[in-house]
Amino acid sequence: MIRIAALGDPHAGLDSAGQLRPALYDLADRADLLLLAGDLTRHGDPEEAAVLAGEVADVGVPTFAVLGNHDHHSDQPHLVRKVMEEAGVVVLEGESTVVEVGGARVGVAGAKGFGGGFQGACATEFGEPEVKAFVRHTREIADRLGAALAALDAQGTDRRVVVLHFSPVPETLVGERLEIYPFLGSYLLAEAIDRVGADLVVHGHAHAGSERGTTPGGVPVRNVSQPVIGAAYRIYCLGGAEQPACD
Amino acid sequence: MAQRHDRPAQAPGSNFVEPRFDDQFDEATFLTVLAETAEALQQKGIPHLFMGGVSSAAYGRPRWTRDIDVFVRPEDAGLALDALAASGFRTEQTYPDWLYKAWKDGVDVDVVFSSTGGILLDDEMLERAAVESYLGTDVPVLPPEDLLVIKALAHDEHMPRHWHDGLAVIARSRLDWDYLVRRARRHGARRVLSLLLYAQSNDLVVPNGPVRALFEEVFADWPEPGPRGESERVMSDADAYVAERVRTALAEDPRVGELGIAVSVEDGRLVLTGEVAIPERRAAVEAVAREEAPGREIDNRVSALALGGPGEPETLG
């Protein structure tokens, strides 16, 4: 039984100290690891990251994060990453890592992701350089995510989970305006995940979306954006069919 | 190669260079240096037009000028300076963002490559430019419409002569008004409009067409309420623009950075809906919206996110 706590879009500002911490105090009793699905900060200011780092630093379980678009806004994502890492959070940018949970090897792969849209209506690397750069960014991230998952597969893991900021599927965007779907995610992320396979994908970014979806390959996708889950975080349990609900 | 001197940078857009009254030269020397400047650039095939006093004399009011202003493309500025150096000028990369200088026989040559308001020499100016005689020396001169735009933009409290130079161009030149309007739209419609209106008030001949065109350019975003049926349609467009401006500001203003606030207009009132992470941000959202849509009543329905506990865990296979 592996209990995964996840949240997205805390959007920490300098005014956020003490906002999240009270909700996390007993997280270690409820979950084995914590995933932060991006938009850790409001503007990508390293001082905002320090506020969030203070909120999660002593949560008591291994914590993994990806950056979101907000974390890039000040053009200092490397400093946001550094601040989070100094607080013990593992930041994954097209990377993966393995953590031991109760004797099981859990692989965690993470990437920001990016937009581009979904099957039947996705952007292509065609036309103006700006359009091509946009699509290329998504492709590069999807490729890195795929490589990170393949690395986990090669290392041998009992479970694989993926943390993203952008969505890999449209189902978890339902509730958002259709016009902005191309800015909320890309099917290329799902394709990269399905190529290797995973047990759970969590993402944020779509504040007005829906919690549950599935990749075409059958991997459960959960939008853990705080406004969507209406909670500080959610818990997902990975166990066998014979396992009872976790507690 | 020219030496680069460290000098205090000038205010952007300022074209003002302190006259050097210690320089001693006569008209014949000035004209010789003018001809040599043109020849040096011509020989190297560097496109150039004379502006400043030379162009004012051709299209506006003749005035004695102590220096020569020549306009080149930014990418040619270094080549132009080299060409002048090769012709025996002393040169200096004075202001690397807009102006280099050269001297010969006590005459200053300003090599301008970014004029007032960031105006650059371009193909259309070169195509339209005529060769004009300055006291008997034939040189290619900036078109009068471009001169007028630069004069309008260059005018300020300390250099009011630019304004009067501009009026002289209106009084003395045959202007292509369509071209002037096009240039003014690009570089400073409001300032050129004010010069044209001032010229009309002084009984200079300015047709109403260009005045109206620039007026519409400047005030395009502020629709006047017309007759009732029409005004509703126009105002609803304006509402849409106001709402989108507010929505954009809520994302881009550093006090907010909220991408998920919906903004709509109901009976003229701005309605804000959505969720923010903490209560204090509701007020920030409203403050930014108020600045962006002054005078609009605001219905702030933004709520602060209430984050409960994690609830029941979900079991996945």
Write the layout of secondary structure elements.
The complex is a heterodimer of chains A (247) and B (317).
Chain A: E1 2-7, H1 21-24, H2 27-30, E2 33-37, H3 46-56, E3 63-66, H4 77-86, E4 90-91, E5 95-101, E6 104-111, H5 129-155, E7 159-164, H6 187-196, E8 200-203, E9 212-214, E10 220-223, H7 226-229, E11 234-238
Parallel strand pairs in A: 1-2, 2-3, 3-4, 6-7, 7-8, 8-10
Antiparallel strand pairs in A: 1-11, 5-6, 9-10
Helix pairs in contact in A: 3-4, 5-6
Chain B: H1 27-43, E1 48-51, H2 52-59, E2 67-72, H3 77-86, E3 90-95, E4 99-104, E5 107-112, H4 123-128, E6 130-134, E7 137-141, H5 144-154, H6 161-172, H7 177-187, H8 189-201, H9 208-219, H10 228-252, E8 262-266, E9 269-276, H11 280-292, E10 298-304, E11 314-316
Parallel strand pairs in B: 2-5, 9-10
Antiparallel strand pairs in B: 1-2, 3-4, 4-5, 6-7, 8-9
Helix pairs in contact in B: 1-3, 5-6, 5-7, 7-8, 7-9, 8-9, 10-11
Give a written overview of the molecule.
The complex is a heterodimer of chains A (about 250) and B (about 325). With about 250 residues, chain A is an alpha/beta fold. Chain A is about 30% helix and about 20% strand. In chain A, the strands form 2 sheets. Chain A has a 6-stranded mixed beta sheet with strand order 5-6-7-8-10-9. With about 325 residues, chain B is of the alpha+beta class. Chain B contains 11 helices and 11 strands. In chain B, the strands form 3 sheets. A 5-stranded mixed beta sheet of chain B has the order 1-2-5-4-3. A 3-stranded mixed beta sheet of chain B has the order 8-9-10. Chain B is elongated, with a radius of gyration of 28 Å. The model of chain B is unreliable at about 1-20 and about 225-235 (pLDDT under 50). The interface between A and B is medium-sized, with 42 and 22 residues. β11 (about 235-240) of chain A pairs parallel with β11 of chain B, so a sheet runs across the interface.
